């Protein structure tokens, strides 16, 4: 149990730091906000890919959906728990740099702004840590591994969302001012259409993206490249 937690506590921060340092040293013109945002997305895609793979293995191994068990359920929940905590910090770091925090320093004001902006994602991660994890590990009495595997598979869309945001950023950073304006205009038109979609009928991942899109459109003080890749 402890080894799985320690493995997650090392793997996700280490991947974040390695990607961030690689981007800062090898990609010309990238700011701290750019590298932090992309690094957070890479870690998110990595975790979601592992969760999807674990879910598929569990679901395909359980013949009886109630009583069949698989060791990977508890193992991955323990391994992924540090990610939930670390990702909150990574999202805050991305927000901190995108708001010019490097010149102002950390403060309760910047933390409060982050919590107001990304409260849905913070709540999502907190509930998974404080509610979902204890139920999975201690209160299920070994039942329902199939359904936990199904919950893992719901992460399937996350890598595509994260990779899409990363791919959007690369052409923006190499474009000139006119290209920036053209892409930004197209972005705002697409965002307007997306925000008019019916909210209550959308799945959680899409609702999270809607919230981020709305916040991105409101952040006129951020450069178009940073705003585009942080939505």
Record the SSE blueprint.
Layout: H1 2-26, H2 32-61, H3 71-98, H4 101-104, H5 108-117, H6 119-139, H7 145-153, H8 158-174, H9 177-195, H10 204-218, H11 224-230
Provide structural commentary:
With 231 residues, the chain is mainly alpha-helical. It has one domain. Helix content is 80%, strand content 0%. The protein contains eleven helices and no strands. Helix 2 (32-61) runs antiparallel to helix 3, helix 2 packs antiparallel against helix 8 (158-174) and helix 3 (71-98) runs antiparallel to helix 6 (119-139). The longest helix has 30 residues, at 32-61. The protein starts with a helix and ends with a helix.
Mean pLDDT: 79
Helix content: over 70%
Gyration radius, rounded: 19 Å
Order of helices and strands: HHHHHHHHHHH
Give a summary of the structure in a few sentences.
This protein is 80% helix and 0% strand.
Search tags:
mainly alpha; disordered C terminus; 11 helices; 0% strand; 231 residues; elongated
């Amino acid at each position: 149990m402890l080894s799985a937690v320690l493995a997650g506590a090392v793997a996700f921060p280490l991947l974040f730091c390695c990607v961030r340092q690689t981007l800062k040293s090898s990609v010309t013109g990238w700011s701290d906000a750019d590298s932090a945002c992309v690094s957070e997305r890479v870690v998110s895609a990595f975790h979601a890919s592992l969760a999807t793979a674990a879910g598929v293995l569990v679901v395909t191994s359980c013949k009886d959906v109630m009583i069949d068990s698989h060791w990977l359920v508890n193992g991955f929940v323990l391994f992924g728990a540090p990610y939930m905590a670390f990702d909150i910090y990574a999202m805050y770091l991305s927000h901190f740099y995108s708001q010019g925090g490097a010149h102002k320093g950390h403060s309760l004001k910047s933390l409060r702004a982050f919590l107001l902006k990304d409260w849905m994602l913070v709540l999502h991660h907190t509930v998974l840590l404080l509610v979902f994890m204890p139920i999975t590990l201690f209160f299920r009495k070994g039942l329902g591994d199939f359904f936990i595997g199904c919950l893992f598979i719901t992460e399937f869309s996350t890598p595509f969302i994260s990779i899409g945001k990363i791919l959007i950023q690369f052409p923006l950073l190499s474009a000139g001012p006119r290209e920036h304006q053209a892409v930004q205009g197209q972005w705002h038109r697409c965002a307007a259409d997306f925000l008019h979609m019916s909210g209550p009928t959308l799945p959680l991942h899409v609702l999270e993206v809607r919230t981020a899109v709305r916040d991105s459109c409101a952040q006129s003080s951020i450069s178009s490249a940073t705003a585009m890749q942080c939505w």
